[in-house]
Amino acid sequence: MPTPGALETPSTDSALAHGSARSLLITILGELVWPTEEPVWTATLVHILKAAGFEEQTARQAIARASGSEWIVPERHGREVRWTLSDKLIHIFETGSGRVYSLSDPFSSWDGTWLALWTSIPQSLRSARRPLYAGLTWAGFGNPVPGLWLTPHVERAGEVGRLLDELDLRQHTVAFTGNLDAVGLPREEIVARGWDLDALRTRYEEVWAAMNDLRPDGDDEILTAHIRLVSEWQEFPRVDPQLPEALLPDWVGRRVARRIEAFRAEWTPIVRRRFGELNAV
């Protein structure tokens, strides 16, 4: 993750520079602040975001919005402010980190069972449509035919049940688990229709190419490259259904995730030491 003052963002990570100040701030909080269980100074966050290429005003706006969303809690020390992660944000990190870490898993234990969901949204609850679809996508569901949602992740049934309860849609939904019958669409066609994997494959290939060019020089550039790369990694669970190897063999997403994990393992000691130095002043 980025550093102080006039540090420049390495040109080699230009293909990774798609994140907003908000998304990079969340990465900083989750990757650097959460593990320490210590507060972080505003100046530290601003310095890191500036090193990532954001203006100071943009960085401060991102911090203010994070506070307004009750993700971070301020603690004033004279004219300076330091921030503690809220229970709300810690819960997000705890529940979301497993989804990120599992991107490299080939899910070879899948036994062919699907979780199927059919829901009819009444006009009175039409505002629930968007959050429902977003929640189902996050849970790895695809929509191969109108009205039907499918995922091989049957272990996420509880997560989907909570979503339906939040949106008051349980009574409008039928759900079941089972194997596909040969009289219907073949698995390959379900995968092709259910998920936009072509666009996702293209994005993964762009990140892979960007990693080929990553040559950060020194602790500060490693910090910046680390934050950008991890921020990309954390976005993929929103769009990658994490299909098992049996449905999606040799998926580029798994290879990209394993390579990011290798960079992260190499860089984390350097990054955390540098962050500690920045946050100590």
> Residue-averaged pLDDT, rounded?
90
Number of helices: 10
Order of helices and strands: HEHHEEHEHEEHEHHHH
CATH architecture of the largest domain: Orthogonal Bundle
CATH topology of the largest domain: Arc Repressor Mutant, subunit A
Termini separation comes to: 17 Å
Question: Strand content of the residues, in percent?
Answer: 5-15%
- Biggest β-sheet strands, sense, barrel: 4 strands, antiparallel
Radius of gyration in whole Å, from Cα? Answer: 21 Å
Q: Provide the structure class.
A: alpha+beta
Oligomer: single chain
- Largest sheet, order of strands side by side? 5-6-4-7
Give the overall form. globular
CATH C-level class of the largest domain is Mainly Alpha
Summary tags:
Arc Repressor Mutant, subunit A; 2 domains; four-stranded antiparallel β-sheet; 7 strands; alpha+beta; Alpha-Beta Plaits; 281 residues
Short structural description:
The protein has 281 residues and is an alpha+beta fold. The protein has helices spanning 21-36, 42-51, 56-68, 87-101, 129-138, 157-166, 187-194, 197-212, 219-235, 252-280; strands spanning 40-41, 72-77, 80-85, 114-119, 142-145, 148-151, 173-178. Helix 1 (21-36) packs across helix 9 and helix 8 crosses helix 10 (252-280).
